[in-house]
Amino acid sequence: MPRKGEMKLGVFVNQAGYSEGAWRDPSTPVNGSIEVDHYARVAAVAESAAFHFLFLADHLGSVEQGQASVARESGNAGLEPITLLAALTARTQNIGLVATATTTYNQPYHLARMFASLDHLSRGRAAWNVVTSASKFEAPNFGETELPDHDTRYARASEFVKVVTALWDSWEDDAFIRDKQSGIFADSTKLHVPNHQGKYFSVRGPLNVARPPQGYPVLVQAGASAAGTRLAAELAEVVFTAAPDVEYGKKYYDSIKEKARAVGREDNQVLVMPGIIPIVGRTKQEASDKLQRIQSYAHIDVQISLAERMLDVDLSSIDLDSLVPATLPTTNIFQSRQTVLLELAARHKFTWRQLIRFVADGRGHRIIVGTPDEIAENMVDTFNQSAADGFNVMSATLPGEFMEFVELVIPELRRRGKYRSAYAGQTLRENLGLMRPLNRFTQASR
Amino acid sequence: MPRKGEMKLGVFVNQAGYSEGAWRDPSTPVNGSIEVDHYARVAAVAESAAFHFLFLADHLGSVEQGQASVARESGNAGLEPITLLAALTARTQNIGLVATATTTYNQPYHLARMFASLDHLSRGRAAWNVVTSASKFEAPNFGETELPDHDTRYARASEFVKVVTALWDSWEDDAFIRDKQSGIFADSTKLHVPNHQGKYFSVRGPLNVARPPQGYPVLVQAGASAAGTRLAAELAEVVFTAAPDVEYGKKYYDSIKEKARAVGREDNQVLVMPGIIPIVGRTKQEASDKLQRIQSYAHIDVQISLAERMLDVDLSSIDLDSLVPATLPTTNIFQSRQTVLLELAARHKFTWRQLIRFVADGRGHRIIVGTPDEIAENMVDTFNQSAADGFNVMSATLPGEFMEFVELVIPELRRRGKYRSAYAGQTLRENLGLMRPLNRFTQASR
Prior knowledge:
- 2 copies of one chain form a homodimer.
- Chain A is an alpha/beta fold.
- Chain A is built from 15 helices and 13 strands.
- In chain A, a hairpin with a 4-residue loop joins strand 7 and strand 8.
- In chain A, helix 3 runs parallel beside helix 4.
- Chains A and B meet through helix 2, helix 3, helix 4, strand 6 and strand 8 of A and helix 2, helix 3, helix 4, strand 6 and strand 8 of B.
């Protein structure tokens, strides 16, 4: 059954591309991960296709797991996402800019300031992907031996975001009068001191940045565990998720929308956008050859290391040709991903080798291999079934596969009336159809 | 006596300009403080005159001191410096980019990453001005009631910088091989885990950013207290300072160079660059009229509020026409500035009103009012006397006074052979004549 409206699209930029070993692809510039021109080029391609946003992941550590895999690991030489996006504000015009930042090893005042600044620099195109850290390599960089308990991380995240939005509301939108004649810069009745005293934070405020053009930068979140979906339903305006197939995606979509409705939020203010990894070929054969080529980039040691991290398991003494068990000890790290991957492995009766391969290809995200027509059809079908409001396109290689997607698949989506041909507004909120949050204090005085 | 070589110049960018009330000047764009185009314009003027760097101050709080002064205070609506400079990397080519960041309310891993990233984004033009926080408005934004003790802040700063430089050395310069053919991305023997365990920090590392193009971004520091000069002598490559007159400047210059020599550092690797506020007129009369006009911008309430903060004193019940006393209770906040201002007041027998005026004009920095010829002569003389290796030009209004300086004073400096006409190198280090630090681990293995 067709569904009204058009899908939203983001491009997920993971250095050289989302597949393990993507950096070996001929299309990726050799120093790309630390080269702003590489990211600017991907942004330009995305903007030419009116993508809603460009999305940068993050983690606060280097991946180290034995000499062999350190040597083949490509994620240890990157750029910090907020500074990178700040640089891209000057090289883009319309696309939204999403930076990931953890609430576990940050302070609300810093992040409130940086994202407010990014929103001013981009004239209202900033978004914050709120994460709680899911890598064991982070804790020791901040004086801790391991990550705080999963639910503690989420409780801290919830309070953290409350503090940040209160800081963004410190000054009402029209607080700064700047009357050169009289010398009055601010209407002091429009200053509101958050004075937050909570379990995890004590932050007086006010922020020393004017309220962001969007009111708040768009809030993105990717929770899928019990605590994670609660947080998503409470605050996420864009929900990023790994849905390895439509079946899982539909279930997740319904559950998020229902939880959001329960806290009084409108369906169209909580956009569920799972990742997809499109492998595009002009023919079926070309697509599957391409998948094989891309798969050949990832050395088995790197694949195993990645699977160990995503699942929080030690595979060193496991027979890779044995079946994946139905359960593993519950992890404190990446709970939702562990659950999704184990469910998937059970459904498809995966051996460890098959699961490791699947993780290396897309870390649990859905891979669609086919012709432009097939990929577009698949996306539209997922959209029509209300299993997604749009997608995060996580191209296997950058810019290679992403350029193919834009050239070949975007026209098919447009032909089906499911994707726009130009930007509708200036801010990311306008482009996503999200309301601009009223300042809580302005609201109170009405 | 003439001195060999040329002076270095930085431009200090304090939103609308350095004088209190600068935002009221006709030359300043009304929304300038949150408008990237304003900063980009100043940067373009500076680059046209081959300035060595653009310098952004910072503080982690809003200034609030009674309703009246909040209304007239212009510093509460700015942009965060690191993100702002990241945006400017894309709009500048040669100029160095100095961001201030405090070690008191940050974590080394974050700052190491951000500055490394800024150095990559700018192709080697980043610098970090290390400060320890000197505003009572900061602590409550980070869960504390007041700033840590002055000496504790400096001890923490010293350890903080050690951790950051160790993180920058995590990967040797040529650690990332990126051999697409073999799939070897990194030479794992060139990875060095800092594993720092100290009094204030425990940081394992390694950093997940490649070593910065400059090895380390240039380290700037402005210590002038006992603890502050120790830190400057130990690590600063550019020393920023407030020297209200040449007499004080010469004393400070000699003391820093001597302390640096004592720890084995070369004179030309520790550049002392005091601030100056040039008020340029085509005639003496024009210059002094201009000073009067600029002074008229700052309301007395704002002037008093600023002086109270700089000196850590309550002026509400003091007769402003009485003489400034020789001493005040030692402050835990801005120790060196308090000392400098009290010494100056004693030398000139200032009343409180005069000292408040002096602080409002330039917060303790030297003001030079005159014709282009007089200002250039004054600067060259200070340089020749070895009371400065160069200057931070802290124009009273931006871009107004800065454009006047570039148009009128720069040619006079060049005519005297004391200022260059083009950039000498690509990186800020090259332009300042600073050595690129060898990676400590590379060094050890030679």
